[in-house]
Every structure is written in structure tokens, then in C-alpha cells.
Amino acid sequence: MKKTGLNIVLAWLVLICPTAFVQADDWEQARDRLAHGEFESAIPFFEKHIQSAPPSPAAYYEFGQALEKSGREADAALAYRRSLLLDPGFALAEDSLQKSNARLGIPASPLRWQDRLARIIPFDSSVVLGSMIFWIGAFLMLLAVRARKKRILILSVAGLLIYLGASACLLAGLCDPRIVGARQGMVMNLAGTTLYKVPSEDSAEKITILNQGSTVTVLSTRGRWLHVQVPEGQRGWCLQEGITSFVPSA
Amino acid sequence: MHRFSKILVAVSAFLLFGVSLFGEEATAGLSSPATLVGKPVEIVVTLRDARSAEVPQTVNVPGLQIELLGRSTRFEMNNFKISSSLTYTYSVLPQREGDFDIPPIEVRVGNKTLRTNPLRLSVAQASQMQPPPGLPGVGAQPVPSNPKSLANTGALPYFGELVLSKKKAYVGEVIPAELRFYFNSTIGGEVGDRPNLAGEGFTMQKLSNVPKREQIVNGENYTVFAFQTALTAAKSGSLEIPAAKLEARLQLPGNAPAGFEDFFRQFGGIAPPGMFTNMQEVGIETTPTTLDISPLPKSGRPDDFNGAIGKFKMDVSVSPKKAGPGDPVTLRVVVSGQGNFDAMGAPSLVGDEEWRSYPPSEKFQSTDSINFVGEKTYEFLLVARTDQQQTPGVKFSYLDPDTGKYEILTQSPLPVQARAGQAPAPSNAEEKKQGQSAASSATTLPTPPSTTKAASGARSWTSQLVHPAFLWANAGLGLVWLLALAFILLRLRADSPAGLRRKKSHRIKASLQALESCPDNEFTSRAVECLLVAIGSESNPLNAGALIPALAIDDEAKAGLGNLLARDAESKYSANGFRPPDRDARTKIVTALKKIPV
Fold first, then answer.
1. Residue A65's pLDDT band (boundaries 50, 70, 90)?
2. Could you tell me if the ipTM is greater than 0.95?
3. B106 has pLDDT over 60
4. For residue B159, which of A56, A102, B26, B144 is within the disulfide window of CB 3.0 to 4.6 Å?
5. How far is B431 from chain A (nearest CA, A)?
6. Does A23 touch chain B (CB under 8 A)?
7. Which residues contact B60 (CB under 8 A, 6 or more apart)?
8. pTM of the entire structure?
9. For chains A and B, what is the number of CB pairs under 8 angstroms?
10. Partners of B366 in the beta sheet?
């Protein structure tokens, strides 16, 4: 038994630890290069780190900085957006995104109530806490069924807890940028992408051209075509080439 | 401004900036600045206003055999002013190829010692003769662009020429050129400061004066004013180089005043040449020429090609050889040769991933006046990221315009011992020196978030709400909740009066079934147990007798049940032994028990 435990520990040391060191090394290398103004050489290290390590808003923010300083404005804007998906209250990333958008000629989008809430509520924690409260309320309700005394009081408390817990989870579902942003994407083509009325490259059906850096919400897909909605509310079809999802694909 | 004033100012400026064509000096000139091995050229040493002088018989230059050939004296009369010039001619026989610097020749005139200007002669093998940069081809006699013969001798008084090192070049390639303006030694005057040359499609280096020299052209002695420059074509195709114009004010031969010819004719002769001259302002122009400019070849172009065109070699050194933690080492790359030093980029480092490097400083030292020949030094400041035993390698690519092929100079990594560490912050002076220093950019960076900040925020792209683990946990909790609910409901159902009745009925049925098949000696006790369950008196068996009369059953059944209780008492307390009930009695008892309502 002791031997098995030792083997597990050794396996962890051999397999997990080097990975962690490599991740840390890439991260340190990238930050070091960024701090010394070696922006272009920092980018591959950021990319390696981002691919191998759990996502972090700081990594994406600094990756965006390196991209921005290397002249890759749209890529930088996407990195800032991803940083904000992970941490909507990250003021540095918000500021940098606004500047990047200004340079790309993308108008600032109005702040929605979901965005305001996202900045102040830690959704992952609220979901776990809300779930716990919900189930406490639910089991309390079972207790109330069996209770002979103060059944109404117990039922009221249970109902309140269930309501609070469910609300917390529902709010996360409505506001968590990772859920909302999962259907959003950014136009990365330098020349932008064309929005059509129908899924056809017919110039007569052209609505407008979305500039590089524009964001769209994907409503549905049909082959190579995406049915999208722009922040102004207009809907149309565009080719999925050149549209990059906010949430990186696995 | 009054016209007279304008003329006065112009003349004054001309005099101020002009260069005196003639002065009391000893000048020397080569009949040709380049030649072949075994093909002699001449050095002409000219002394003005001197009747006699002492010159060396030979001039000692290894590789050249220089011997005095002879002397000649020339008298000139310009506007009744008689001047003389003494000319010594040396023969120069090249014995081997190379570039030779001929030192100044010392000439003693009376008590004075004059020194001629130094000369440079390029000698090549006959088979591989190429014009040196900015100089004409061997034996190329200049062709006057605007010949105007001197009145009586047929010699040209002045002319200009543009000498290019090549007629075919690449875009961005530096083409050395020399503008030459020849003035016959028999005329005097003043020349402007420098010629004008302007055109489209090319850039030009600042004109550089070449020391005035004497040169023999078609047997005539000329004073040559030359200006060196370098042209760089900005686009491919046919490039027109327009004429360059040099202003001069010359004393050119003129006609004798009316009556003078007759005066001389009376004496059976003609007016001596040069006796009558006119001061004229002239513009001496070179001949326009055309260059064939090709675009840079695309095939074989290295990825790191930085625009260098020419012929180069590279030397690399590193210092110090040992560096402490974080101490920088300097990788010095010297690119020397001839080419477009002003436009070319720095060499690239190879395998420098483990080094922190900055854009190199650049220093160019030219060995000519047109920045065509020289050496450019790049200094890379390197700081090891991890402990290093060797420097990065160096690679430099350039286009050889003669072959039209790209060449790559490489330098293997040099041994060095450098310890890893943080780079020192470059000083302001260093930043300025390094131009667009990366370190200066780094100072404009927003401060990166701290590690604490990096750890905050979500660590996954999947929201906790839709995370599989979260969903499975909630599903498990939901199942437990449902099971608990079911249990509670079942318990509630079981504890209800109907439930209790069902339970009682089940027990009675089970007891009756067991009663029918039990042995005779156990029948009475089991039948009593069944009775007690049926009348709900399990906790108080003694009370059973009192309850029987109240049961809603017929009297026969009540009698049967009373008989049962009596038999039970008898079996428990009788000393005479127990008599089991016969079959009829068992049937009656069971029938009576079945009649009891649940």
C-alpha cells in the first residue's frame, strides 16, 4: 500500500512537475522579453504559455501588449477581449481594448447592465455559492414536509434559500461573459468582411462591410456561412473565414 | 536692385567663392589615373612663373619605375602679360598590379622648396582590368562634350565629362561617379565652387572636391577640376543622368583690336597667339548619359537580406570573454568593403533565443569621400538569459552586383562565458546611441499585472455554471433530494390511518394463512395472537375478553372467539394437560377470526 502511494507521488513529480516548470519558464521568458521591449520575440512564448497553461486574464493582457507593440492591432484587441472574458473587471485590459478599438476605428459599444454586473460579481464563486444555497433550501423543504412544528417558517426559509441560489445561478447564466461571449466573434480580416442579406456572395445582397476588429454575435451557422448580429442590431450573413471566436477553440 | 549692383555682387561672389585656376605652386598630374602592368603613363609636374628648378631624377615607389624624361618651358602672353610655365615629365612604368600612392615630389625653386600634390595610380593585370571606384577606365581618353577649339592651335580650351564606374546597376546600388572639367593650360581664369547636377530617379552624395591635377589629353596639357560623388538609383528602368554644369570665368582667345592685324602684317607676321584675350563667363557641361537600372533579383534572396548591395567581408569579435551575472557582452560585427553602407541594415543574429539583445549601435568609417568604401561597425549588447558558453552566430546577406547573386556571410558562435541575470537598465546616453532602443519602449509599457493579479479571474473558458463537474455534482444532489423526497412520502403514506389499516389487514391475512397450516399444539397460541392483532389489543392481551362483545360480528363468532380465549387460558394454567382443538373447533375459530372487521 505504501509502495503504491510512493509510486503515485513519483509519477506526479515526473509527469506534472516538468509541465509546470515549462509553463512557468515560457511565462517568465515572455514577461521578461516584454519588459525589455522585445515584443516580437515575446509573442511565441506567450502563445506557448497560453496553449499549455490554464487561461489567465493577465497572460492574455500581456500577450495583447506584445501584439499591440508589434503592430498587430486586431490580434491585440482580441487578446484584450479574451482577458476581459476571464476577468471583466480587469481595468488595464478594458483601457487597452478601448485604445485598440479607437485605433482600429471601431466605435465604443454602450455598457449594458450585464457588463456592469460582470465587473462586480465573481460568477464562478457565485455559481458555487448559489448552488449550495439552493440545495440547502431544497433539503430544508424536505425537512419541512416532515416537520410537525413551525412548518410554515421552515418552508419560508427554504423557499427563500432556493430563490436566492437559483437567482445567483441564473444571473451567471445571463451575464457571465464566457457564456455570452461563446457566441461572439471578431472580424480579423485586414480588409474586413462583407455582411450579406442572404448566405450568398451576391454583391446585390450586400448590406455593409464590417471592418477589422468589429464584433458580431453568431445566431446560427449554415455551412460556411454565419448568421450574425452586429452590436447595432443589424442582422446578416457573413463567411466564417476571418471571424475568430472570442472563446478560443480547444 | 540696380543692374550694375547685381553684376557687382555676382562678380564679388564669384571671386570670393571661386577657385583660382592658377597660383604659385607646383602641381602634378597623371596622364591617366589607372593603367595596366607594363603600360607606362606620365607624370607632368608644372611650375608657374619659374625659369629653372631642381627636381629629382627618380621617385622611389615600390612597384613603379618612375624616371624623369625631360623638361619644357612654355611662355604665354595674356593681355600683354607674359607668363611662363616649366614642365617636367616623368615616365611611370608599372611593374605589378595594385593601388600605388605616389608621394609629393619635392621641387626646389631658388631658395624655396615646393611640394606637388600626391597622386594615386591604380594598376591592374591586363586580363582583369576594371576601373577603380569613381575613376575612369584605363587609357580612356575623355571625349569633349562641347568642343571649342582654340583659335590657332586646334586644341580645346575646356570641356567636361561624367565618368561613371558602370552603366548597368541595381536599384539601391551605389554608383561612384566623377565629374571632370578640363581646362587647357594655356588659358587662365576662375571656376565656380562646384557644378550643378540635379535629376529625377536617383539620389546623389554630396560632391567632394578632388585635388586639382594636370593631365595630358591628346598631347595637350590640361588642368583638371574633378568632383567625386555617388549616385543611387531609386527605381528600375532607364535612368537619365542630365548634364552637370560648372560655371567659369575664363580668359579665352579673342580677336585683335581693329588695326592690330595690319600693324603686325607690316612687319611680315601675325599677332602672337594669346596676345589678345577676352574674359568670358562660360558654363562647362558634361555629356548626359543613361544608366540601365535593374530591380533586385528575387530568386535566391535570403530571408535576412537587409538591402546591402556591394562587396563585403565580415569580422566578428566579442568582449569581454567572461561576464558576470547580468553583465552584458558586446558582439562587435565589422562589415567592410564597398557598397551602399548608408542604406544597408544590420546583420542578424542566429541562435540568440537564450540571449537578450538590443538593436545594435552603428558606426561607419569611410575611407573615401563618397561613403562607398569603408567599414561599418555594429555593436550588439547581449545579456545571457541562461548561462552561456558561446555567443549567437552572425549572418549577413548582400547582393553582389557583379554576379547578380546573393551572398551570405556567416560567423559561427564565439566562445564566451556569460552568466544569466537581469539586464542592466541602459543609460540615457546608451539609449540615444542605440537609436530606437527597445529599452526605451519598455519604459512606456504599462506595468504588467502582478502575479497576484495574474492568479485572479477565471482559470477556465468554461463557466462554472456549465462545467461538467458542476453539472454532475448537482445532478447527484438532485438525485439524493428525489430519493429523500420519495422516502419521506412513503413514510407519510405508511403512517396514515389507511396505511395502518392496510398494514393490519396484511398482518391478519398472514396470520390466518399461517394458522391454517400450523401444528395442533401451536394453533391456540397463534390464533390468540391473530385475535389480538385483529382487535388491536396486542399491548394489552388481558383486555381482549372485554373487547370481543363489542365486535361487530355475529354471536356464534363471538362464542367461538370466547372459546378460543378459554382454551388459551387452559393451555397456560391447567395442570391436567392441554387438549388440542379438533378440526371442527379449528374451523370455527378461523371462521370467527376472519369475520373480525379490520
1. very high
2. no
3. yes
4. B144
5. 13
6. no
7. B66
8. 0.43
9. 121
10. B374
